[in-house]
Amino acid sequence: MTDHQGPAEASDRALLARIAEDDRGALHELFVRHQPWLAARVRQRCADPAIVAEVVNDTFLVVWEKPGRYAGDGEVAAWLWGIAIRTLLHRLRPRKSVLERLTALRHDHATASAEEAVLLSVEHTDVGQALQRLSPELVAVVQATVIDGLSTREAAALLGIPSGTVKSRMSRARSELREALL
Amino acid sequence: MIETTALTKAFGRTRAVDEVTLSTGRGVIGLLGPNGAGKTTLLRMAATVLAPDAGELRLLGLDPSRAGERVEIRRRLGYLPQSPGLYPGFTPYDMVDYVAVLKEHTDRAWRRQEARRVLEAVELTDVMHKKIRSLSGGMRQRVALACAMVGDPDLLVLDEPANGLDPDQRLRLRSLLSTSSTVLMSTHNISEVSALCQRVYVMFDGRIRFTGTPADLAGLAVGRVWEDDRQDPDAIRSWLTSTGTYRHLGHPPSGAQVVDPTLDDGYLLLARKEHT
Amino acid sequence: MSTHHTAWHADDEDLTTYLDGGTPAVLAASLETHVLGCPACRARLATLSSADERELAWARLADAVDRPSRSPWIVRSAIATPVMVQAAAVALLLVGLVPLVAATAFGGRGLVTLLVAAPLAPVAAVALAYRDGSDPSGELALAAPTAGLRIVALRALLVAAIAMPVAAGVLLGVDQWLGDVPVRLAFAWCLPGLALAAVVLLAGTTRLDPAHVAVAASAGWALLVGLIVFAHRSVRPELFTDAIGGPAVQAAALAVAVGATVMTVVRRDAVAYRRTT
Questions:
Q1: What is the rounded (10 degree) CA torsion for A124, A129, A133, A134?
Q2: Quick check: B125 contacting A, CB < 8 Å?
Q3: Alpha carbon distance B180, B231 (integer Å)
Q4: How far apart are CA B80 and CA B161, in angstroms?
Q5: Taking CA atoms, what residue in C is nearest to B71?
Q6: Closest to B182 measured CA to CA, from B93, B98, B58
Q7: Looking at the partner chain, which of C23, C25, C58 has a beta carbon nearest the beta carbon of A28?
Q8: How many CB pairs under 8 A join A and B?
């Protein structure tokens, strides 16, 4: 299949552009590139291999059917993860009404990105050391909200605890981290 | 696999196929001839889409004029028409699936596997979900070829299969066709015959004028080709070759430098006879 | 979520442990954040993970992507032809709109137009079903085992199933509008229409071009309606009710319809194995 291949490897964005033109070969290339880490990362959050396979599959189906959803900024990998973690959430929690999901969506961005900004501006190694001192349940909350970029509500659903608990644990984690880092 | 006796088909006063009698064995059989020689009409009869006016026709040992046997032939037949109609709004995958449905394949899982197999064979896997209207001419030809190959037919009738294919894909066509049991393909390109076919029929004005292997066709001109550095008015035909010498066809004068004939020489000699 | 490109990269041992699920949460989080922004580490992780599992996952995804259409083949083969859909739409417009406009504008004279046009719906349906251009895949489909009367009849039925109710609906609509069309008349054209359609269907088994026969049959019908008008010099609805809706015409139409259909079925072989062109 020599129709599209560039001299070197095509970028993820180029692959997405080709997927938008229904190029199945591009989907395969993107899949080969991203399926391993996506599956591994979902597996860290869900013990059931059947669900992991389903989530990864559904993630790439979204890519195939709606490649135009990629806004064109940021890493394609990060966009993929965004789809995967939300697919996982959707799979884990009971179905909500459209209205609820819409309002949840509106909250997503503000909450997630504020915390992202705080923590991701810090060097990794430092965060690693600081995180190491946190208790496991605080780490889980930090991971869900910061690393996975979930809203409070979504993190609560993923961890199976009330939203209030997520908030209180997050603020405890924040103050402990601040102490450790500053 | 294809047997005809005095097969005839006329359109108005023109006898497109004129008392053709032939019997092909297995393998890839080429039907060579100029445009308008009746190749397409013969192929359409071999594909059961056109009924002959007179003569006998047997395909895969069956008689297409009997309804039951005709359906049986069609089940085991793959056909590439001269101008295959492909729905522009379909994808290659849809198109092959549609043809599989027409060929009575009701099992969806089987159709999926088959669509993948034939599209893989013609190297269209990557674009199988693009709309046909966005594909190049060569790709469309390969889609049609894939449609003909659905169900791995015992008899493939292909009208100009190499049309629109680039040299690389023509080479692939050879290995593609070698796996089928019987292929009857038309062409007006002599080099395709030597590359693809085990046997060749040459057709002029509705009649078969030659039957044999490609080597036999070249053999027609043994001792009838010579080369010289100037034109020869006694030759049936003379032309300038790329090496700068003239190549002549006909009865060589004594002392002429007779050379080994090619397929082209044999064909040209046949064509010449036809017009005199 | 763009990350800083750090100087460090994950080593193979870390990645293998991570893949096995043995990495502590903190290190895992750190690894994940790095891998998300680092194509090189993603590629290495890919080489360390199971290729078989990836192949299996791809096969699953490919099955979802390569999904044959669910629609039954009848609808598929009939509807799948855009030319046919367009032509059917035009025929519908002619059958439905022209008489409606005429009836509204000219009253009784419109009724004549309607009577002329209504039976053309099934006739057009059959003629369309035979058209070569109706199926762009043309000879590709003709060489298939399913080719023949079955597919022609299915196509004709499909168009007729849409066209006939529309024609009937228009007639009933006119009835409401003008208030003087007997209901009997609104359906009087049905049998003649079917008879004409069956004749066109039968033509498909002969050397005649079904399209030509369709035109001839339609012209004949128009002539008949015209003759009635001419003979009585009037366009009163009762006139047509008696003439066309009468038992003689209806019985004759029924006989022709049944006869032609039976003949077609008997000669069905010829549909799939054409002697012309």
A1: 0
A2: yes
A3: 46
A4: 7
A5: C145
A6: B58
A7: C58
A8: 27
CA distances for C94 relative to A17, B64, C90, C113, angstroms = 45, 41, 6, 11
Q: Tell which of B94, B122, B123, B126 to mutate to test the A interface (max A CBs under 10 Å).
A: B126
Looking at residue A16, which CATH number applies to its domain? 1.10.1740.10
Residue C71 pLDDT greater than 70, yes or no = no
CATH of B1-76+153-213, one of 3.10.20.90, 3.90.1150.10, 3.40.50.300, 3.20.20.80: 3.40.50.300
At which of A51, A74, A92 does a domain end? A92
The pLDDT value given to residue C76? 57
Put simply, whether C52 touches A (Cβ < 8 Å) is no
- How close B67 gets to chain C, by Cα (Å)? 6
pLDDT in tens, B258-271: 889 988 899 988 88
CB contact under 8 A, A33 and C36: no
> Is B126 close to A24, i.e. CB distance below 8 A?
yes
**C-beta neighbour count of A128 within 10 angstroms:** 15
Q: How far is C71 from chain A (nearest CA, A)?
A: 20
Q: How far is it, in rounded angstroms, from Cα B249 to Cα B221?
A: 8
- Alpha-carbon gap, residue C194 to B70, rounded angstroms: 31
Q: Which of C136, C146, C274 sits opposite B102 (nearest CB)?
A: C146
Residue ranges of domains in chain B? 1-76+153-213, 85-150, 218-275
In the three-class reduction of DSSP (H, G, I as helix; E, B as strand; rest coil), residue B3 is classed as strand
- The CA–CA distances, whole Å, from C247 to A156, C186, C232, C250, C252 equal 79, 15, 19, 5, 8
Q: How far is C51 from chain B (nearest CA, A)?
A: 21
Residue A120 has a pLDDT of: 43
Mean pLDDT by 10 residues, chain A (182 residues): 48 92 94 94 87 94 91 85 87 59 48 42 52 77 78 83 88 81 63
> If you measure CA to CA, which chain B residue comes closest to A27?
B126
Using alpha carbons, select from C179, C195, C172, C180 the residue that is nearest to residue C239. Answer: C180
The model's pLDDT over C21-64, given as tens digits with 9 standing for 90+, comes to: 887 777 787 788 888 888 888 999 999 988 999 999 999 999 99
Same domain for A15 and A34:
yes
Residues constituting chain A = 182
Which residues of B fall within a CB distance of 8 Å from A26? 126
- Identify whether the C-beta of residue A173 lies closer than 8 Å to the C-beta of residue A142: yes
ipTM of the complex: 0.77
